[in-house]
Structure formats: structure tokens, C-alpha cells
Amino acid sequence: MCAISSFEFKVSIVIPVFNAEKFIERAVESALSQAETAEVILVEDGSEDDSYEVCQSLNENYERVQLYIHNGHINKGAGATRNLGIQKACFDYIAFLDADDFYLENRFKEAKKVLQSTADADGVYEAIGVHFESSSEKKIWINKKNKRLITTIEDGIDPDELFWEQSPIGSKGYTSLDGLTIKKESLKKVGVFNPSLRLHQDTELFMKLAMACNLYPGQVNKPVAMRGVHSDNRITKTRPVEDSITNYKKMLNSAYEWALANGYTKEAESLKYLIKYSRIHRTSAINYNRSLVNLKQYLKTLRETPTIALEGSFYINLLKFLLKYVWINVRK
Q1: Which of 4, 25, 140, 180 is the most buried (most CB within 10 A)?
Q2: Domain end marker among 197, 220, 236
Q3: pLDDT digits over 26-61, tens only?
């Protein structure tokens, strides 16, 4: 039974679990160590290993740990699994943690300050770091994936500008679910996660939140949580470029349809251009990313430039840099 005090900052931690038997206990204990954690909600997503048994043990040993499964104990994916956790949450604020990640000390210290001092704040985003389970994963992450050791927005951004400045529209970085603290009612306002997206549900959610809510920066210069990188998680997996672009385009389409349906016209226009671009471009991932940076500069002009006037110059310049990067690729 849910017992809520409106005078305290208490957080429901939602942890989706799939094939993470080695890491769940670490994640749960890091969440329970935070003074603001009112409950930890484990949603076991039909794992093929012993994750469910580990979750059962944690549920039995800790009063604040709750355990749920989908009907039939089937696998539904991270989006649907997090949605079930949100539905079951008893408290006004929600934070997320992947089962192979963990929180650092004072995870909610800055978030609590911002939320208590800023009347219109719906949520707070903060930085997360990387924890490598072995040296081989570190090599893949840095050398092959060209990833940073901290995931964050580069500097504090006004909530009204966040959609335009964060990835994938802007170039000032992106946020992670492990670093988000958000009002439960704000999540429901944007329709929570799209369960049809198997990848990039978090990116789509952040775009919707940036359009409809006021998200403020917390601790963005150093991590409040650590992402676990190991041989079994999707972060270290290499996918064909075509598959990556297809999944990305599906996410953009979902965000575009939501923006259009909810009256965010300029934001929908920017997403439309990004979708068209992903259909055209079929060169290497490196050149895709390089030319995407150029495209983002055009997207930012949508706030100031009438759509009709933009169309001609946009496609002329888009064609120019696409030809440039295709030519570079052909020469190689």
C-alpha cells in the first residue's frame, strides 16, 4: 500500500532487469544507500539467466525492494518494462537505474536542491560516468566506439532551449536515464516510454520531456552514477550501419509524430528534416556522424527562419555536404 508524505523528497527507483544476474545486487544496494530512496522497483523482463531468482532474494531481504513481472513473465523490452515500474511507483519523484549500472554517493544531493528551490522544475538531469568490468571493454569503448568517459550536457541550458541544444537536434551532448530525476506526473504528461521502440527509447523520451516540461541541470560536470560496460550489454555490441540508421529513424519518427500531435510545430519540422536526412545518407558511420554535425546547424535556424523560405536553401546546402562526404568515402 502506497504511503506518501507531501513534505519530503522521496524517490521511487525503477530498475528494469534482463539477463543481469551478476550486477543486480550492486545496483540495488547503490540505490538503497541513498537517503532519498523510498523504494526500489525491480521489473524482471523475462530473463534467460538467473536474474529473476536474484530479484526474488533481494525482494525478500530488503523491505524497500518491490518485484514485478509482465503477465506471463514474457520479455517486452526496456520501454514497456520501465513503464510498468512507473505505473507501480508510490512516490512523486522517479529515477531510473539500469540493472548493470550503479549510483554514486549523494546521487540526489543536487537534484533535491534544484527541485526544492525551483518552483516550475519538472525534473533534473545530471552526468553519468563509465565503469569498465574489464580492460577489453575499455579498449572497445575508447578505441572502437570513440565514446567519452562522461555522458552529459556540456553546460547548463535554459529549459526552453534544451530541445534545440541537446542531441540529436543540437550538439551540446545528451543526457542519460541514470542521471534523470523526474516528477511522476511529468512522465505521464508525455506518455512515458514508447514500448514499440527496442532501441533509443530514452532519447525519444528526453526529446518529449524537453518539449513539454522544464528540465534543469544538476551536477553536470561530474557523475552521479556509473554505467557498467561489459561484454554482454548492448553498448559494446557492433551493429551494421544500416541497422543503426533504421533504429534511429524509427525513434525520430516516433518523436516527430508525438510533436506533431501535441502542437510542437517547430520541433516537428526539425525532426522531419532529420528523418529525411537519415533516409538519404548511406555512407560509413564516421561520415554519417560528421555530416550530421553540419545538419544540426541548419536545424537550429528553424526557430528564426520561416519554413517556406528555409526549404530551398536547406536542400541545396544539404546536397552540397552530402556530395562532399560521399566523395570522400568513394575515394577511400
Answers
A1: 180
A2: 236
A3: 999 999 999 999 999 999 999 999 999 999 999 999
